[in-house]
Each structure stands twice: as structure tokens, then as C-alpha cells.
Design brief:
The protein is mainly alpha-helical. The protein has two domains: 2-208, Cation efflux protein transmembrane domain (Alpha-lytic protease prodomain-like); 214-298, 2-Layer Sandwich (Alpha-Beta Plaits), CATH 3.30.70. It has eleven helices and three strands. Strands 1-2-3 form a three-stranded mixed beta sheet. Helix 1 (2-20) packs antiparallel against helix 2 (23-54), helix 1 (2-20) runs antiparallel to helix 5 and helix 4 packs antiparallel against helix 7. The longest helix has 32 residues, at 23-54. The radius of gyration is 27 Å and the shape is elongated. The chain starts with a helix and ends with a helix.
């Protein structure tokens, strides 16, 4: 639904931008077209992740080539999406400033008002639909897409106000400001948009670089230490990373050299106990628990 609506808005914006002579409308259309392409890529990645988690719908060759799954693609797509949106906005800001320093830009306000009046309700409906859906889905992809629709709604609302103002001053002593309305609004919108994807890009970079999330690391440390004390183990080593929605946890417990022998079923029972203490089992969690008497295997 989002992709179809975005493509409609993009083509609608480009056509009306050319018809009215408004660079801000064309920017809105190009922004929407870029957003649609990123949504298609995100949908492809989501399908890959879901198919791998369900062990269905993927060829044997893909399973053999990506034995660790496709979670690492999620932050890559999110980071690429956010970076491209920032880049397009910076380019549009430079063009808007250039027009303001020049002679502005004349446009047909009636065409521009029709565009904004049609686009704004569409954007608001998509924001409401995705916000309601994501209460259950809890997807960063959907959240970013919802944010993009909200940004588009803000852009369109600002354009509508500006175009109505420009239409209203025609034939008055204030008509001289008309050529500057379009670039001024575009510059203002870009200044608002540019910081918005920054948090998403920062989080995506953290995931790509495998920066350890402190809250998860603290939880894993507390659980591991409790089992060291409970079973008289020497120490533990914990390695934690967040990759998209996935949580990767590796736990190494150092067993004393003189510890009583346990059979495999007993070790597996302890592993199950540790896994349960870490939290509910999920397809989003990659958990490895190792028992060894050699610290070298853990470090």
C-alpha cells in the first residue's frame, strides 16, 4: 500500500511541479520516488529475513551462502535510506538558497494549490495506517516509512500555506514576494527534514559496526554471573551485538579443571536454563552457549 501510494504521489508531484514551475513540488516528487525505491528494497529484505526465519521460500543455494541469515541487511538498508534522504534534502537546500540569492522563481499558484490539496490528505491517511499497523509489527522499516510519510505531510502542509499566501498577494503591493515564496518554503522544509533521519542512520551504523548495546550487555552479564555462582564455575565471557532486529549473544563459561563430570544431557539442561533466564526464545535471537575448561577458547 505504501509503495503504491508513494509512486502515485511521486509521479503526481513531478507532473504538477513541471506544470506549475515549482521546484519545491518537484523536490517533493523526487523525494517520494526515492522513498518508494527504498521501500521496495526494504520489502525485499524483509521477505528474505522472514523466509529464512521460517526456513521456507528460499533456495538451497541461498541457505548455503548465507548460513548466518539476512539480519545484517536490515541496518544496511536503513542506513542507506536515511543517508540518501539527507543527501537529497541538502541538495534541494543548496538550490533553494541559490534561488533566494538570485531572482527567485515564478510559478502558477493555482496548479500548486491543487497539488498540495490532493497530496496532504493522502500523506495523513498513510501516516495513520502505518502507525496503527506498527503497534503490532514493531518494525523499524515501517517506523522509518511512517516517518517519511509524516515528513511528506509536513512538506505538503507548508507548501499549501505558502501557495495560498502567494495566490493571495497576486495583484497587490506585496506581489514582489511571489518569486521568493517557493524557494523560501523549500529551504525551510529542508532545514526541518535534514536532522530527522540522523537518529536512524546513527543506529544503523552502530548495528553495522556491531557496537555492543549496553542494556543488553548488562542483562547478559547479570544472568551469566548468577550461573557462575550457582554452579561454581571459574568465570564467563560474554559477547553481545545488535544487528537490525536480531540479538547475537555468545556466552562462554569456564569450568574448573577438577569439576565433577557431567553427561551431555546435564550440560544441555544448564544451557536451556541459561537461555530461559536470558529471555523468551525468539527467531530474532542468535544464542551460543559454550562450556570449556580452557580460557583460550573464550578469549
Amino acid at each position: 500500500m505504501s509503495i503504491a501510494a508513494t509512486i502515485f504521489i511521486a509521479l503526481f508531484g513531478i507532473v504538477f511541479g513541471l506544470a506549475s514551475g515549482s521546484f519545491s513540488i518537484m523536490f517533493d516528487g523526487v523525494y517520494s520516488l526515492l522513498d518508494a525505491s527504498m521501500s521496495v528494497l526494504a520489502l525485499f529484505v524483509v521477505n528474505l529475513i522472514a523466509s529464512y526465519s521460517a526456513s521456507a521460500g528460499l533456495s538451497r543455494r541461498l541457505h548455503e551462502r548465507f548460513t548466518m541469515g539476512f539480519w545484517h541487511l536490515e541496518p544496511i538498508v536503513l542506513g542507506l535510506n536515511g543517508t540518501m534522504l539527507i543527501g537529497v534534502s541538502v541538495y534541494a537546500l543548496i538550490n533553494a538558497i541559490s534561488s533566494l540569492l538570485g531572482q527567485g522563481r515564478d510559478l502558477a499558484f493555482d496548479w500548486a494549490i491543487v497539488y498540495a490539496a490532493v497530496t496532504l490528505p493522502t500523506c495523513l491517511v498513510m501516516v495513520a495506517l502505518e502507525r496503527r499497523a506498527n503497534r503490532t509489527i514493531q518494525s523499524e522499516f515501517v517506523q522509518l516509512d511512517e516517518q517519511s510519510w509524516l515528513i511528506s505531510a509536513c512538506i505538503t502542509a507548508a507548501l499549501l500555506v505558502a501557495f495560498c499566501l502567494g495566490y493571495g498577494v497576486q495583484g497587490t503591493s506585496w506581489e514582489w514576494i511571489s518569486p521568493y515564496i517557493d524557494p523560501a518554503v523549500l529551504a525551510l522544509v529542508c532545514l526541518v527534514i535534514i536532522p530527522m533521519p540522523v537518529a536512524t542512520v546513527r543506529q544503523a551504523l552502530s548495528d553495522i559496526l556491531l557496537v555492543t548495546p549496553q542494556d543488553l550487555k548488562q542483562h547478559v552479564d547479570e544472568v551469566a554471573q548468577s550461573f557462575v555462582e550457582k554452579y561454581g564455575l571459574v568465570a564467563y565471557r560474554a559477547y553481545v551485538a545488535r544487528v537490525g532486529r536480531a540479538r547475537e549473544i555468545e556466552l562462554y563459561f569456564i569450568v574448573p579443571a577438577d569439576a565433577p563430570a557431567r553427561n551431555m544431557a546435564e550440560w544441555d539442561a544448564i544451557r536451556d536454563e541459561v537461555a530461559e533466564a536470558l529471555g523468551p526464545e525468539s527467531n530474532d535471537r542468535w544464542l551460543t552457549i559454550v562450556f570449556t575448561g580452557d580460557l583460550g577458547w573464550a578469549d
